[in-house]
């Protein structure tokens, strides 16, 4: 008996076979084992308990070594309990309440006013209207201070964590000391137990340590970031060295139609954890400035501690433009230092985390702790090399995640890191300072070819800027000095043309190099526009996808299934009759539970997105948030800007139609004229074209709005810009010089721009250019032709960008001061209409294809434009957004302030109907797709106020004359309908909508623009189609990997249960091939599947528990189960089969339990089921290309099929022995296996090897299994049957016409 112990280190075996019956059956077992075991199995070492020369270190828990550990545990428990008790008593004596700070997260387009006002036309003024993309955020701040006793307790807790690791090392050294390594069946399976002396005591210690450490590390990781604070004492903020910050969780749930079980979970979660109490926390150390200011940084924002209150660090230089002009003298050095103390350095406090911090943060998660505690079971139970392989796989997965995280941080750092020298006015002198030391109120001298380090307001001079990194706008933008008025400063609103934004580049400062361009700092650091955009990337609103809500349900179901299998496995092990110690049985049950509940499941749901990122990058599409790729796969509505997105960036100036007097003195529009083609052009119109613009010069190049550049270029005049002088224009020969003394920039709310011009006779004239609707309102009715509106709309319907031009001469004798003193309202009133200006807005060649691809993919394209509805209608018709046979009805505000609807098509009746009549009479046509709606921004505001817009939203195709804030509202209203929404624009006015959409893509030359999650450098609208294709493919790939892991766990449970039923365990090579080759190679190969070349009519499911995925997994599983049972029945009926004599074996010596027919049948049957499930889940459906195009998967799968088939059919050889194939006669006379030897000693007869005939028939059975799986997946789960069922019982979702 002692010899067996020495061979296997299993002291428990003596107790379990002590009965007389067992002793009789096992008579001579160990002598036989020593004699018969060859080099295949271990021959040692001898157990230390049976080796007189070996001294056992720990024989009893009363020795000093265990007592020392117990004393340490006692110190930890007593110290920590005492501290928590004292902490509670202190809190009861002097309660500390958190300081509550509420802050509104303002969007880019928000103004200070909360109450929208209406203009003369009843529309909402963009200057006063604001949109909050996110709700107000509530922050709670609680002060804490360390104590010596608390730090001592925290140190003890850290040492306790190291204590568990040290104990594991001690146990494993005891388990494997002196182990042998001589082949695949002798890979360091057991040692001599020189510390604890026996397998039994070693197992008991391991069991206790495993449970205690599992609970310890799980509790620690669930409270990561808070543990240290448990050992600090709450105190007033004035005394705090650490601030505990609690913030309410802000998340957007993307799943509306969910299963009842999800609704139940939501209700239970709401009752257990009310929404108001859900949040995240962070412990932040308090920092000190040189002069003693106390502050801390939370999510990049600086908060100053003032006594027991917290104040967000921000400094307002002024509210009005005049306030800023009053600061033109700059700051003193002392004032600048004081402001640095108050608001901090001018930098975005983001740095890539040190690699070691990323590694620790990534590995120390619930996911990896679960892996650790499970794989430590494998390592202890003699699966040293298999566990090492699985650990390697996990480390590879973690390395990929770490690499991706590090790369994303580096990309963001490229955007945030910037330090330059700035020329600042300090004490009346210009001095050069580090840009990080700039503060609000500093006056800077702007230079050309300079990247702006903060937000600035121009006080003097002009600039030409490149804003593409911030807005995506590729064309240079001209900036002007802000007027000295009492107007409220709105940097991203009406005064954006006076603002230099952080991160943009000044291409040219002034007209000449020596020009002084002065600007004042308005905000620094995270308070800048760039800082706000970076903040939205670093701390985005959490989006909860459908599978995020369902994953806990799946895990719960798997745990329940695992518990059932746990109980069954215990029963099966006892039934089989193998000798075993209780720890061994527990280990085997836990190993099965680990395989069922794969720790790779969360990774599987994201793995498809990593490959998609690289493929998108190769197509010129860059991604800052990979999770949005999967979200893009579910998009149902895609919104498009018009100009520069669906149409070409540049517009051609076609000409103008001026007012003419007829014979009866009535006014009419003349024929189309072009300055380039017609020799005579009306003088007033010519001067208006020459002056009414914001064009500037950048070297020899004209820059500005492309409409105005084309307009000015067409007349052939010269633009003259010089320092300290008003800009002027003149004919090419220098005659007719006109000086532009004042320019009112284009205003979205007004839809106009205007200039005051001085002619050569010192007379002042006003020219105003804007939307034809607005010019109509501002002009004398008598100056307008009768056909004005009809003609303008007709041109717009033909694809023209139509503007109106009007004029007014100021009274004779008006001085320059009087002209400049006029308010803008007075400038733009009582005008004389001159002409309609026509520009051609051509559709991009690829727009029609992109729109058709989206419609074919069941995605509804929508247009949101600042242009008029008629031009939008033409572009929508041209690109196929609106079908040729479909009529469009426009909703606009009538004179009485209500919304009226009329046909946009010129051939339709011009009668106007009300909203109620539209809904009553035309709803069927709208639902049938025979009618589409268009709506203007003003009408949209009124309809939204009455909730009618919600009813008409999904029938509206064109949103015209929309301001930036309105674009955001359209995106959010579609989202509120439960739709996943995309947005495509070229930046600029689209920034808010791009960020509000679930997947925004900016057409910009910037590689990593902060405008939106995706940026297309190709600037092609086809990038939208590529994004959706990759999104659908990535989502389907992620779910394929998820199903593979679920199937892996389910089939592994069947394998284990069958093994425990027969009392067998597969050999080492079998497990290496299952866990290593199958999971590693095929799992990776599945991620390489390419997306479909075209968008299909359906989107991939995002539900883990939906019929498609459940049917696919359960169907394949049941087919596999049937064939597995069939193979076992087939085996048992085969002549010569002898059941494995489990009662003569010991479970702990698992390497001896694979020499039987059962192992061969189970391994070959289930292994081909494993790899085939990976293959069939990669078929592709309509979202990915056919599996044959995945070369790596095809080679890996069919290579394994051929290899395993050959291995099964080969005759017995040293090669087949590696897998313990039953072509070897295990139960031969004088067998190598000690189990078969004892079996024969107790009356058993030798039995033959598995015949080639049987193995060949088994192979055909396995092939039939493979074919059945493929048929199920391709015909039923994802084939015609699934499509028929989906059509018969469609998902409940909003319906609309494409």
From TrEMBL:
Belongs to the cation transport ATPase (P-type) (TC 3.A.3) family. Type V subfamily. This is Cation-transporting P-type ATPase N-terminal domain-containing protein. The chain crosses the membrane at residues 67-86, 152-173, 205-222, 355-377, 383-404, 551-573, 585-605, 1045-1065, 1071-1092, 1104-1131, 1161-1180, 1187-1210, 1258-1277. InterPro entries: ATPase_P-typ_cation-transptr_N, ATPase_P-typ_cyto_dom_N, ATPase_P-typ_P_site, ATPase_P-typ_TM_dom_sf, ATPase_P-typ_transduc_dom_A_sf, ATPase_P-type_domA, HAD-like_sf, HAD_sf. GO terms for molecular function: ATP binding; metal ion binding. Residues 321-376 form the Cation-transporting P-type ATPase N-terminal domain. GO terms for cellular component: membrane. It is a multi-pass membrane protein. It is found in: Membrane. Keywords: ATP-binding, Magnesium, Membrane, Metal-binding, Nucleotide-binding, Translocase, Transmembrane, Transmembrane helix. Residues 420-537 form the P-type ATPase A domain. Pfam families: Cation_ATPase_N, E1-E2_ATPase.
């Amino acid at each position: 008996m002692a010899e067996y112990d020495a061979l296997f280190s299993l002291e428990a075996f003596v107790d379990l076979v002590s009965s007389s019956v067992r002793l009789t059956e096992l008579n001579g077992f160990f002598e036989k084992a020593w004699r018969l075991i060859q080099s295949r199995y271990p021959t040692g070492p001898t157990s230390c308990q049976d080796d007189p020369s070996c001294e056992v270190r720990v024989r009893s828990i009363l020795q000093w070594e265990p007592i020392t550990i117990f004393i340490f545990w006692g110190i930890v428990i007593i110290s920590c309990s005492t501290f928590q008790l004292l902490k509670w008593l202190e809190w009861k004596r002097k309660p500390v309440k958190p300081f509550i700070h509420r802050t509104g997260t303002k969007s880019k387009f928000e103004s200070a006013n909360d109450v929208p006002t209406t203009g003369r036309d009843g529309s909402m003024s963009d200057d006063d209207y604001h949109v909050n993309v996110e709700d107000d955020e509530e922050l709670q701040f609680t002060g804490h201070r360390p104590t010596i006793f608390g730090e001592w307790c925290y140190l003890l807790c850290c040492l306790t964590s190291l204590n568990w690791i040290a104990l594991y090392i001690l146990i494993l050294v005891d388990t494997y000391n002196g182990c042998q390594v001589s082949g695949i069946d002798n890979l360091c399976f057991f040692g001599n137990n020189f510390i604890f002396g026996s397998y039994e005591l070693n197992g008991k210690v391991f069991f206790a340590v495993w449970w205690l450490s599992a609970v310890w590390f799980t509790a620690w990781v669930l409270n990561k970031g808070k543990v240290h604070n448990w050992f600090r004492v709450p105190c007033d903020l004035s005394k705090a060295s650490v601030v505990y910050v609690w913030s309410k969780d802000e998340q957007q749930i993307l799943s509306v139609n969910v299963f009842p079980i999800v609704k139940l979970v939501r209700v239970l979660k709401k009752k257990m954890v009310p929404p108001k109490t859900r949040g995240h926390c962070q412990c932040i150390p308090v920092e000190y400035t040189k002069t003693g200011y106390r502050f801390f940084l939370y999510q990049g924002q600086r908060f100053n501690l003032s006594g027991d209150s917290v104040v967000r660090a921000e400094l307002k230089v002024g509210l009005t433009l005049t306030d800023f002009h009053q600061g033109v003298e700059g700051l003193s050095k002392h004032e600048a230092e004081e402001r640095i103390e108050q608001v901090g350095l001018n930098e975005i406090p983001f740095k890539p985390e040190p690699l070691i911090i990323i590694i620790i943060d990534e590995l120390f998660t619930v996911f990896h702790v679960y892996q650790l505690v499970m794989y430590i079971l494998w390592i202890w139970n003699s699966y040293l090399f298999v566990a090492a392989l699985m650990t390697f796989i996990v480390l590879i997965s973690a390395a990929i995640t770490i690499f991706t995280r590090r790369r994303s941080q580096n990309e963001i750092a490229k955007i945030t890191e910037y330090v330059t020298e700035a020329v600042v006015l300090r004490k009346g002198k210009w001095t050069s300072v580090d840009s990080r030391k700039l503060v609000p109120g500093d006056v800077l001298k702007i230079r050309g070819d300079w990247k702006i380090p903060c937000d600035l307001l121009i006080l003097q001079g002009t600039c030409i800027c490149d804003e593409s990194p911030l807005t995506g706008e590729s064309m240079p933008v001209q900036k002007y000095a802000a007027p000295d008025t009492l107007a409220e400063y709105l940097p991203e609103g009406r005064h954006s043309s006076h603002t230099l934004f952080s991160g943009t580049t000044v291409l040219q400062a002034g007209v000449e190099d020596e020009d002084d361009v002065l600007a004042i700092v308005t905000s620094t650091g995270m308070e800048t526009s760039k800082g706000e955009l970076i903040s939205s990337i670093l701390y985005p609103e959490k989006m909860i996808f459908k599978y995020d809500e369902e994953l806990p349900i799946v895990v719960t179901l798997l745990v329940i299934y695992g518990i059932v299998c746990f109980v069954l496995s215990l029963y099966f092990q006892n039934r089989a009759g193998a000798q075993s110690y209780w720890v061994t049985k527990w280990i085997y049950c836990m190993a099965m539970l680990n395989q069922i509940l794969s720790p790779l499941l969360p990774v599987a749901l994201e793995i498809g997105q990593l490959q998609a990122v690289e493929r998108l990058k190769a197509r010129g599409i860059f991604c800052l948030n990979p999770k949005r790729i999967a979200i893009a796969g579910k998009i149902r509505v895609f919104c498009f800007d018009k100009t520069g997105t669906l149409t070409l960036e540049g517009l051609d100036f076609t000409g103008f139609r001026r007012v003419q007097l007829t014979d009866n003195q009535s006014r009419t529009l003349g024929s189309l004229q072009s300055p380039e083609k017609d020799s005579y052009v009306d003088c007033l119109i010519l001067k208006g074209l020459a002056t009414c613009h914001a064009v500037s010069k950048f070297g020899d190049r004209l820059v500005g709005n492309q409409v105005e550049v084309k307009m000015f270029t067409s007349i052939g005049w010269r633009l003259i810009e010089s320092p300290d002088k008003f800009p002027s224009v003149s004919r090419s020969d220098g005659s007719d010089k006109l000086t532009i003394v004042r320019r009112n920039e284009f205003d979205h709310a007004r839809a106009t721009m205007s200039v005051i011009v001085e002619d050569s006779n010192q007379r002042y004239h006003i020219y105003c250019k804007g939307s034809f609707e607005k010019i109509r309102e501002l002009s004398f009715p008598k100056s307008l032709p009768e056909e004005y509106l009809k003609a303008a709309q007709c041109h717009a319907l033909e694809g023209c960008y139509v503007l109106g031009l009007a004029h007014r001469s100021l009274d004779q004798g008006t001085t320059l001061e009087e002209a400049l003193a006029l308010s803008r309202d007075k400038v733009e009133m009582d005008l004389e209409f001159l002409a309609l200006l026509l520009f051609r807005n051509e559709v991009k060649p690829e727009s029609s294809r992109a729109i058709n691809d989206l419609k074919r993919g069941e995605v509804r394209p929508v247009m949101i434009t600042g242009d008029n509805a008629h031009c939008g209608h033409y572009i929508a018709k041209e690109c196929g957004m609106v079908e040729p046979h479909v009529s469009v009805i426009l909703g606009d505000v009538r004179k009485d302030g209500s919304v009226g609807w009329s046909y946009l098509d010129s051939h339709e009746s011009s009668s106007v109907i009300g909203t109620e009549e539209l809904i009553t009479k035309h709803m069927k046509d709208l639902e049938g797709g025979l009618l589409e709606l268009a709506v203007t921004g003003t009408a949209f505001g009124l309809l939204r106020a009455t909730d009618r817009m919600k009813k008409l939203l999904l029938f509206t195709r064109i949103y015209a004359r929309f301001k930036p804030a309105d674009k955001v509202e359209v995106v959010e209203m579609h989202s509120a309908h439960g739709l996943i929404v995309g947005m495509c624009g070229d930046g600029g006015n689209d920034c808010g909508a791009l960020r509000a959409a679930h997947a925004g893509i900016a057409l910009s030359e910037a590689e990593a623009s902060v405008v939106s999650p995706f940026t297309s450098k190709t600037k092609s609208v086809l990038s939208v189609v590529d994004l959706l294709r990759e999104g659908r493919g990535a989502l389907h790939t992620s779910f394929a990997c998820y199903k593979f892991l679920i199937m892996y766990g389910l089939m592994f449970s069947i394998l284990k249960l069958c093994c425990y039923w027969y009392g067998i365990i597969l050999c080492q090579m079998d497990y290496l091939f299952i866990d290593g080759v199958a999971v590693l190679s095929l799992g990776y190969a599945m991620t390489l599947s390419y997306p479909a070349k075209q968008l299909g009519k359906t989107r991939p499911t995002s539900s883990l528990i939906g019929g498609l995925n459940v049917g696919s997994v359960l169907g394949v599983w049941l087919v596999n189960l049937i064939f597995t049972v069939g193979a076992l029945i087939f085996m048992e009926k085969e002549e010569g089969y002898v059941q494995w004599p489990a009662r003569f074996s010991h479970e702990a010596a698992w390497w001896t339990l694979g020499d039987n027919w059962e192992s061969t049948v189970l391994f070959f049957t289930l292994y081909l089921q494993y790899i085939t499930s990976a293959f069939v889940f990669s078929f592709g459906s309509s979202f990915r290309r056919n599996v044959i195009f995945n070369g790596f998967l095809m080679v890996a799968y069919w290579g394994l099929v051929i290899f395993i088939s050959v291995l099964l059919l080969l005759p017995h050889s040293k090669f087949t022995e590696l897998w313990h194939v039953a072509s070897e006669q295990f139960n031969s006379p004088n067998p190598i296996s000690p189990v078969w030897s004892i079996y024969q000693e107790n009356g058993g007869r030798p039995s033959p090897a598995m015949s080639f005939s049987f193995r060949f028939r088994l192979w055909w059975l396995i092939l039939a299994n493979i074919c059945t799986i493929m048929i199920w997946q391709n015909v039923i789960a994802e084939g015609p049957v699934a499509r028929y069922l989906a059509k018969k019982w469609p998902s409940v979702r909003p319906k609309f016409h494409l």
